[in-house]
Amino acid sequence: MELSFGEKIRNLREDNDLNQTQLGEAVGMTQRKISYIECGKYEPSLEDITALCRFFRVSADYLLGLPDYRKETTGCK
After folding, report:
1. pLDDT, tens digit, for every residue of 11-33?
2. Is the pLDDT of residue 62 over 90?
3. Would you say residue 76 lies in a domain?
4. What does pTM read for this prediction?
5. Residue 62's closest CA among 70, 72, 53?
6. Does residue 45 contact residue 2 with C-beta atoms inside 8 Å?
């Protein structure tokens, strides 16, 4: 089973020996917001996702559970 967005953030935070307050300060969020993101009570904004990706040096695809490759589509040209 794939981890949720919040579980991935929690794992990355713990792997880097950070508490929620430290992560929040590093990415411009409150401890409460980090807590809500980790437990799925808050859906992060694009700015939040970007800040977390930059801080942890991971792709948004990874955090969002998307494949990290581009499929050919027949969309707009």
Report:
1. 999 999 999 999 999 999 999 99
2. yes
3. no
4. 0.84
5. 53
6. no
